[in-house]
Design brief:
By secondary structure, the chain is an alpha/beta fold. The protein is built from 14 helices and 17 strands.
């Protein structure tokens, strides 16, 4: 599962950064992968040291009911940038795979989508994304960059286009192979057996197929199989690389001092843009696997490499697919000195989709009027002008399938959550998601519930005890209201191209980027050379 953390600074000045007017403050957004809500000191953890993040909570607002739009990276990031449910942009999968696996896939965030970075750029902001993207890169050629961050309103990009797979770090195993072997291994076996059988039948004369046609089929099959073997063998070189804008600067990716490099890029971006307002999105690779930590943090925490990674991410601040609360309820901290009350807690439901309208309105840009924006401006809530969230209903998707709904009724403290289906998550269940670390959303991997499971998160945040008509007198009335909300929501959805279809997901050799020849294993390390030159020149 993937968890996202959103830390927002609205600030007028930071060290040498010049002060701007209240209508165009500098904006820094930080997010982290797979960070649990219980991993930070400000959310109650007493064994991991996160003093810088905790200080943000002391100086700003802590959101206790902050929800990611999806427990998976790709759809959640699409929602974050656009303020819309991922299914509206085609970024929620109908297939088993819910994220982009390859840098050389053709799917991605459609150019028709409007990101907050596009709108702020129109307002004169200089914009940068540093870290993880995971929303696609190319469409038809290896240099059209139709889905690249620079095509979605960012002036500068330094980071990874896909994600931090275990496969990218030697010795960490392969979540990638575990996740797809059930999907690909059997079809490849069937295709291979079929082709061999055809060749044998042709040879003994039981089937008259023109030799040229059979030879062509066998050749195509052999080329395809060879391509797959080549890709898997060279996965780390082909899929794990670091880019600056449109150029690959390190292939394969090195984890050595990576968080320090990301932090350094972020600081230098701010220092380069002291004369105009800027938007910086710092998207950490921490603490998604493969886990890593720099030398200064390795072995220092009480929780092994995971704890080391969390503490390193905290240091930098001073500078996976189902919708249980553990998969979507995430830390959310917001700070704007002098504007947002320090040390406040907000227990109302909020969403990562709220970042879009909040940032756009703070920068006094115009919200698009030609599409539904599912997020809501957080500023009235953050400033205490209102006490209720505008999110009466929040819809939770498992890929493109509506999995659950939460309802926070007006004039009620209850937060109801209904599950239409849940994952088969058990070590004994071969069709579950325990062994593969991936929860699928299809029949055979899930259990449907009729009537749906009902929880009151205000009393049972861990979703331990489903309510029944005997334990909750309003059981059927709650379900009736939620079903009506689902019907109304469904009517607002329209068919859009599926960006995560198999055709868009598969590896396409002609889209593969290499900083050297493909047959030289795609190797370069300009980033380390750049750092060494800088050290020597200093």
């Amino acid at each position: 599962m993937r968890l996202l953390l959103f830390l927002i600074f609205f600030q007028y000045a930071m060290n040498n950064v010049k002060t701007h007017s209240a209508s165009n403050p500098n904006i820094i957004l930080m997010m982290a992968d797979d960070l649990g809500i219980g991993d930070l000191g400000c959310y109650g953890n007493r064994t991991l040291r996160t003093p810088n993040i905790d200080r943000l909570a002391e100086e700003g607002v802590t959101l206790t009911q902050h929800i990611a739009a999806s427990p998976l990276c790709t759809p959640s990031r699409a929602a974050f940038l656009t303020g819309r449910y991922p299914i509206r942009s085609g970024m929620a999968a109908f297939s088993r795979v819910g994220v982009f696996l390859f840098s050389a896939s053709s799917g991605g965030l459609p150019s028709e989508e409007i990101t907050f970075s596009k709108l702020l750029k129109q307002r004169g902001y200089t914009t940068a994304l540093i870290g993880k993207w995971h929303l696609g890169m190319n469409c038809e050629s290896s240099n059209d960059f139709c889905h690249h961050p620079l095509s979605h309103g960012f002036d500068y990009f330094y980071g990874l286009t896909v994600t931090n797979f275990r496969d990218c770090k030697p010795g960490q195993g392969s979540v990638f192979l575990k996740g797809i072997q059930k999907s690909l291994f059997i079809p490849i076996q069937i295709a291979g057996i079929t082709l061999v059988s055809l060749a044998v039948v042709q040879y003994i004369g039981l089937l008259k197929i023109p030799f040229q046609a059979l030879g062509c089929c066998l050749l195509l099959a052999a080329i395809s199989l060879a391509g797959l073997i080549f890709f898997f063998y060279h996965f780390r070189h082909l899929n794990c690389f670091l880019m600056r804008d449109h150029e690959i600067i390190q292939q394969p990716l090195s984890y050595e001092n990576l968080t320090e490099r990301l932090t350094k890029e972020a600081v230098q971006f701010m220092e380069r843009n002291t004369d105009e307002p800027f938007l910086l999105v710092l998207s950490y690779l921490h603490v998604h696997t493969a886990l890593y930590a720099s030398k200064n943090f390795r072995g220092k925490s009480k929780h092994g490499l995971y704890g080391d990674a969390v503490e390193e991410m905290d240091w930098s601040v001073g500078g996976k697919s189902m919708n249980w609360e553990g998969g979507i309820r995430v830390p959310g901290l917001l700070r704007w000195s002098g504007v947002i009350q320090a040390g406040a807690y907000i227990d109302e439901p909020t969403s990562n989709m709220d970042i879009f309208p909040t940032v756009v309105k703070v920068a006094e840009a115009q919200l698009p009027s030609d599409r539904i924006i599912d997020g809501h401006d957080l500023m009235p809530l953050l400033q205490g002008k209102v006490t209720r969230s505008k999110h009466e209903f929040i819809f939770h998707y498992c890929n493109a399938y509506l999995n659950a709904v939460r309802w926070h009724p007006v004039n009620s403290e209850s937060v109801w959550k209904v599950f239409f289906f849940t994952p088969n998550f058990s070590p004994e269940d071969s069709n579950g998601c325990y062994d593969s670390h991936v929860c699928f959303c299809h029949d055979g991997f899930i259990t449907w519930h009729d009537p749906p499971l009902l929880f009151d998160l205000s009393r049972d945040p861990e979703e331990k005890v489903p309510l029944t008509p005997q334990t909750e007198s309003s059981f059927y009335e709650i379900l009736r209201v939620i079903h009506l909300a689902v019907d109304n929501h469904t009517r607002t959805l329209h068919a859009v191209p599926d960006q995560l279809s198999w055709d868009n997901l598969i590896w396409k050799p002609w889209l593969q980027l290499c900083c050297s020849s493909l047959f030289q294993s795609c190797y370069c390390d300009y980033d380390s050379e750049w750092n060494l030159l800088e050290v020597h020149s200093g």
